[in-house]
Amino acid sequence: MFQCIRRIPKILFLMLFSGLLGQLAACSDQQYTSLYDQALKSQRWLAGWQPQSIDIDGIKVAYLDNQNVDAKETLVFVHGYTGDKDMWNRLAYYLPSDYRMIALDLMGHGKTDQAPDNRYLLMNQAKLVNKFMNELNIDKAHLVGSSMGGATSLLFSLHFPERINSLTLMNSAGVHSMEESEFEKAIESGRNPMAIKNLSDFENMMALIFHKAPWVPEGFRNVLTQRASERYQHFQYVLSEIIHSANIWRESGRIYGLMPNFNKPVLIVWGDDDRVLHPSSVAVFKEHLPQAQTHILKNTGHVPMLEKPDDTANILMEFLADI
Fold first, then answer.
1. Nearest Cα to 68, choosing from 41, 89, 50?
2. pLDDT at position 94, please?
């Protein structure tokens, strides 16, 4: 098994965690927002990230960068629907520092501006990734996409294969699964479990995306719920654009027609308890991308980079080592 390089001693994690618990014990409600933001900064520091932003056609695009500009190879991470660049913090911690690593916020997510024409079709997001790489002078990259970001990464790879060293899809959208997921059934009934209005919605969403939802302090849950609720209508609209985009690409068969011609290395990682995008999707991807390596993580939900970052990092690095 490939052993990931841990740049920060484990004891430092324990010290930081103990200090955090001490602060939480004496924390008032109004202090939780500040404390949560401090915790995010600590995560980024441990992962070696530096927050940056760049202007692309009038859109401010936010991203995290370990700024290892002398690295021979670059990893670009693309998050999923309602997510942001910080979902990669835990995974990045377990990855070796000899790669340049970059995680961006897609349009209408995180700290990146909303799309100026209010269009969030997946191909528009893929074009943003292309322009983003141009602006950062990245000729080629190992692209890692999760969920909606997986579909975005797939479209980018199919249209700009010369810019790809490899493609990793984690619990990715982009194909019709053989079985419907719990999330898809909810959408068909008119309910969006990923759009948050209140604390109950947040807790249900956590139960949906994780095999076993992690403990989150109540104050942090309130912060996350408040921030998500402010974008409730926005993310409802974004989902409608994603569904429209999926209909364009999947129903027409165009994406399936392009996939067999893609000959770059592909890794597919999935949680066996994914209730957002059903694990039966793996067989569909494998049918159209026969070169793909596949890994199913046991007792894992929709976000393996959060739920099992060390195992996910090992799988990713073993894949990259063979390229």
1. 50
2. 96
Which CA distances in Å does 305 have to 161, 264, 271? 25, 23, 10
Spatial separation of the C-alpha atoms in residues 83 and 78, rounded to whole Å: 10
Q: Kind of pairing, strands 74-78 and 50-56?
A: unpaired
23 has pLDDT over 60? no
- Beta-carbon contacts of 117 under 8 Å, excluding residues fewer than 6 positions away, are none
Question: Nearest-CA neighbor of 219 among 13, 17, 21, 30?
Answer: 30
Tally Cβ neighbours within 10 Å of residue 301: 25
d(CA 147, CA 261) in angstroms, rounded, equals 22
Half-sphere exposure of 183 (CA within 13 A, CB side): 25
CA distance 47 to 6: 9
Phi, psi of 103 (to 5 degrees): -130, 125
CA–centroid distance for 222 within its chain: 22
Helix-helix angle 148-159:122-135, to 10 degrees: 70
223-255 confidence digits (pLDDT tens): 999 999 999 999 999 999 998 887 776 666 678
| Structural domains of the chain sorted by starting position, each given as residue range(s) with its CATH number in brackets | 10-321 (3.40.50.1820)
CA distance 187 to 240: 10
**Residues in contact with 93: Cβ distance below 8 Å, sequence separation at least 6, in sequence order:** 6, 7, 8, 43, 46, 47, 309
The arithmetic mean of pLDDT across residues 17-43, rounded, is 71
Phi-psi region of 241 (alpha: psi -120 to 50; beta: other; left: phi over 0): alpha
Specify the 3-state DSSP secondary structure of 191: coil
